[in-house]
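wait is this the right file?? whatever heres the structure
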């Protein structure tokens, strides 16, 4: 068992506040050893879920902090590392039936503009706006 796997296994038994502290230290480290731990965490879905929860807590903790942008970037990178293999299922090749190609049917389409209904006749007289009369000085 590698050191990263031992760390990930130890995280399974930690209470939430201690796990958050450990995750914070590892997010801040951002080195090869940290990447190895993230890949070991990614292999165990239970530990990965707990770590994702701790990361969400860290994101909330650093909102409004002077180093918010830096921490959000680091946390986002870790979240991407945890989601890499979880979102990449093995795809099998799809065998399609061969269908003879048909000629495309082309139809000419002309937009139909419906006539607008006439305006109803109003009982109100039309309003005429006039310029005010010049004042005599």
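ok assuming it is, sequence goes like this
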């Amino acid at each position: 068992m590698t050191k990263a796997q031992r760390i990930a296994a130890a995280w399974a038994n930690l209470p939430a506040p201690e796990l958050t502290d450990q995750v914070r230290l590892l997010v801040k480290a951002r080195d090869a050893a940290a990447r190895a731990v993230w890949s070991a965490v990614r292999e165990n879905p239970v530990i990965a879920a707990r770590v994702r929860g701790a990361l969400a807590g860290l994101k909330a903790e650093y909102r409004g902090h002077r180093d918010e942008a830096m921490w959000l970037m680091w946390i986002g990178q870790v979240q991407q590392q945890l989601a890499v293999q979880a979102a990449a299922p093995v795809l099998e090749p799809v065998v399609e039936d061969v269908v003879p190609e048909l000629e495309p049917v082309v139809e000419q389409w002309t937009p139909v503009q419906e006539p607008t209904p006439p305006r109803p006749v109003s009982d109100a007289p039309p309003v005429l706006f006039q310029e005010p009369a010049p004042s005599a000085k």
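The mean pLDDT is 84. so i think its the right one actually
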